[in-house]
Amino acid sequence: MTRPARARAGVRRPYSVTVPCAGMPPRARAPDWKDWLERWDRQQEAFNPTREARFDAMMDVLEVRLGRRFRVLDLGCGPGSFSQRILRRFPAARVVAVDYDPVVRQIGQGALGTMGGRLTWVDAKLGAPGWRRALPPGRFEGAVSTTALHWLTARPLFRLYRDLGRLLPRGGVFLDGDHLPWDERDRDLSELGRGVVRLYRRRQHARARDTWAGWREWWTAARREPALRSAFAEHVRRAASHPKHEGDIPLSAHVRALRSAGFRTVDVVWQVFENRVLLGVR
Asked: What is the architecture, at CATH level 2, of domain 33-181+212-281?
């Protein structure tokens, strides 16, 4: 059989079209990771309407204390919401984002990538013995965390603080934006904090909005995402060994633990009742 002659110059060949065979499975849809991150932000804002104001306050502190060029840890980063905002505001900054949950970390990596080489993702269990060994080498001027450390029980939390006291240089800063309740011994203030939470939930209910509905819906939808199937299997395996949440550790215990870890200045720098930003300066 003779080969067909080559097409002469200027003569186009017809397009080649591949037609799938009958019974061939359709190509899997690529996940829209940026949409997953945006949906995460919306459900977080449903139960923390001051979330962006808290982010801004924390970034103001970073700028005043560290300038606009620094390297920080984002502890319990989730899908990277705060890391993204830090790197957008500070073009010369770098962030190392640490989380133990493979589901949210995969979404963050898919949505944000490395943001031009300035964002590094780390898989580590905060407060576990040796968790710092997973970090890349180099100096960190600060560490931040938002709506994450309340999941830790006292022992790993205080170990985390001790490790940060060794890791950060003198003048380095730690910022935690989270629900940090008054001590039960401050009965009037403690009851005030709980009362404000109840009032907020009643208002949400009156607007036919369940504060936690968005959270539950997000996780339900994420479990149906085929691209997250293996991450969820690992998520379940890790959750089985994770200590159960025993209630939020009071603000006074955080303050004592940070001072014991070598932080010279420890105080609240922003708050809306028990929604606070706690600052520690080495």
From this structure: 3-Layer(aba) Sandwich (3.40)
